[in-house]
């Protein structure tokens, strides 16, 4: 009896061990391999793709891995977790290198991006990415505050939004005639019903709102290392400093938006509650707004993308979203040629919503986002690359993933010192 009992227990232990081993095998996740082939756009000659870092970012946890390309421009990532990744690479060119490669003797950064690369366990994948870019802009978007104030009373909401435009060059640049546009679609993946815009976004981008800096040509100079602030309402929302920990004083902004009179002149209605007029601050000129009634020039608080552009002969050419069977007023957008764009920033809802990008890679090869939903008082500000004779030169690689950082409180005309 004792031997039989011991024998049965031994057999049982073997089966339990085999069961645990089988479970462990079932729980093992097959890893993936990825080859990234780096190429250079045809407009650049004589550039080597060897010894360039390629980065892959997991869209779930934002984990980043990197690999160096070999002499043939191939970067290999072995045994990585399955999932969705954004793949990127960049190459900084000096003035001499850029001139030899493209004929443009200005410092520039070439970017290559492929978003939403799906990697399956146990499968080898390959992706091709192409380095491309343009010379750095004289005017750049320094700060973009759209997320809304962290105000428990919701009395401020998003009325304190602003865009700061900075002169990143060593020469005076005049803001007169500069356009500022908010791009479509305004909402980007924060709702399951959101869909990307069904329009090609290589030669054109599409605006739902366009404003223009007034002036006849040389009325509004921006000195090197200085900026202008364009706000929704030129109001001191800090209430003489009482709310300085959640919002900003915009009463000294350079320009504000005001659309009530303009909309009324078109037979439409504005919003006197959200759209205020400070008579001491010049108004931006209203150009385009695809909201028929009760509209104003605010930015979406969850995900907004903007551009600044110039075109002396710009005329409104509307195009409808082709996904709409019967488009209404808000489904029409104004076309902007990407060659007119001076600078732009693509802000998404989170790391997983890159399918909603509104800017082509030559303007913004990446994208950025603010964690923590909306009404956080957080802003995005361009990083400082270096200082020359006391003048800050801001980072401008045409990739907002690299160029911008999320800050806890907006800092118009500031750098966070």
Describe the structure.
With 417 residues, the protein is mostly beta strands. The chain folds into two domains: 32-131, Sandwich (Immunoglobulin-like), CATH 2.60.40.10; 139-407, no CATH class. Helix content is 11%, strand content 34%. The protein is built from four helices and 25 strands. It has helices at 2-27, 95-102, 260-265, 400-403; strands at 32-40, 53-58, 64-68, 74-80, 83-93, 108-119, 124-131, 139-145, 162-167, 173-174, 179-183, 204-212, 221-222, 227-231, 255-256, 285-289, 305-309, 318-320, 332-337, 341-348, 368-369, 379-382, 384-388, 391-394, 404-407. The strands form six sheets. Strands 11, 12, 16, 17, 18, 19, 20 and 21 form an eight-stranded mixed sheet that branches. It has a six-stranded mixed sheet with strand order 15-14-9-8-22-25. Strands 3-2-5-6 form a four-stranded antiparallel sheet. The N and C termini lie far apart (83 Å). The model is unreliable at 1-12, 14-18 and 20-26 (pLDDT under 50).
């Amino acid at each position: 009896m004792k031997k039989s009992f011991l024998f049965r227990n031994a057999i049982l232990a073997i089966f339990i061990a085999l069961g645990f081993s089988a479970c462990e095998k079932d729980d093992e996740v097959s890893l993936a391999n990825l080859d990234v082939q780096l190429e250079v756009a045809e407009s650049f000659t004589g550039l080597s793709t060897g010894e360039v870092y390629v980065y892959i970012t997991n869209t779930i946890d934002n984990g980043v891995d990197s690999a160096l390309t070999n002499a043939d421009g191939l970067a290999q990532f072995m045994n990585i977790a399955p999932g969705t990744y954004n793949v990127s690479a960049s190459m900084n060119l000096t003035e001499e290198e850029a001139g030899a490669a493209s004929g443009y003797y200005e410092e520039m950064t070439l970017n290559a991006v492929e978003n939403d690369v799906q990697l399956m366990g146990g499968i080898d994948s390959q992706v091709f990415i192409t380095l491309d870019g343009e010379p750095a802009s004289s005017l750049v978007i320094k700060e973009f505050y759209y997320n809304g104030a962290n105000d428990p009373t919701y009395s401020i909401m998003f009325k304190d939004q602003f865009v700061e435009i900075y002169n990143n060059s060593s020469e005076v640049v005049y803001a007169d005639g500069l356009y500022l546009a908010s791009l479509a679609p305004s909402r980007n993946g924060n709702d399951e019903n959101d869909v990307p815009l069904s329009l090609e976004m290589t030669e054109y981008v599409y605006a739902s709102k366009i404003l223009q800096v007034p002036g006849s040509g040389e009325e509004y100079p921006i000195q090197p290392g200085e900026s202008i602030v364009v706000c929704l309402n030129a109001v001191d929302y800090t209430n003489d400093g009482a709310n300085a920990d959640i919002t900003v004083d915009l009463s000294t902004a350079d320009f504000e938006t005001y659309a009530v009179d303009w909309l009324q002149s078109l037979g439409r209605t504005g919003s006197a509650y959200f759209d205020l007029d400070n008579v001491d601050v010049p108004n931006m000129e209203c150009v385009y707004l695809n909201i028929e009634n009760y509209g104003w020039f605010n930015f979406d608080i969850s995900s907004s993308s903007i551009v600044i552009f110039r075109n002396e002969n710009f005329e409104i050419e509307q195009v409808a979203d082709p996904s709409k069977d019967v488009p209404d007023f808000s489904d029409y957008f104004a076309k902007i040629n990407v060659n007119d764009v001076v600078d732009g920033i693509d802000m998404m809802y989170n790391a997983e919503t890159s399918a909603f990008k509104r800017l082509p890679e030559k303007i913004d090869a990446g994208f950025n986002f603010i964690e923590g939903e909306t009404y956080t008082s957080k802003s995005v500000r361009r990083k400082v690359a270096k200082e020359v004779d006391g003048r800050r030169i801001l980072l401008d690689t045409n990739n907002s993933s690299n160029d911008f950082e999320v800050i806890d409180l907006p800092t118009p005309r500031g750098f966070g010192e």
